[in-house]
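Give me the fold.
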Amino acid sequence: MEIRPYQPADLETLRQITVEAFEGVSIDQNIEQQFGEIAGQSWQFRKGRHLDQDVSRDSAGIFVGTLDGEIIGSISTWMDQEAGIGHVPNLTLRAGYRGRGFGRQLLQFALNRFHEQGLSHVRIETLEQNAIGQQFYLSTGFREVARQIHYCGQLEECLSQLNNRDRTS
């Protein structure tokens, strides 16, 4: 696999790969399962926008994995130099390329870049329902440091609950 810097022409392909890679392990998909589409937009739309946010934050921190000229995956990164921490918001691969060491190569590329920039730590997140991600990160030297619970509510319902509580207090 060759790893190269992100180019704006990659965006739509990387969005597709990102959505495919996060099928079954996306907070946005979990929200949609609870509430349905929001504002007429699917979880895939919202997840694809995460890549737009990565591009806006640091397009030079996105790297694309190719094999025989085909884009097979990517890794997005950003650095907090002052804190000494590199961040990996998204690591994605097309389904047919998973389990073949390409994710490990993308991660190693990013970690080498962080090391060259003088960072001392790296941070990455995954969901509890992503057993493969958990195993992968543990196998590459990461340690679990916290678990976080994500909540989502329908705004009108939350406001109603708060207003009802205020009236009874």
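The beta strands are 2-5, 62-67, 70-80, 85-93, 121-124.
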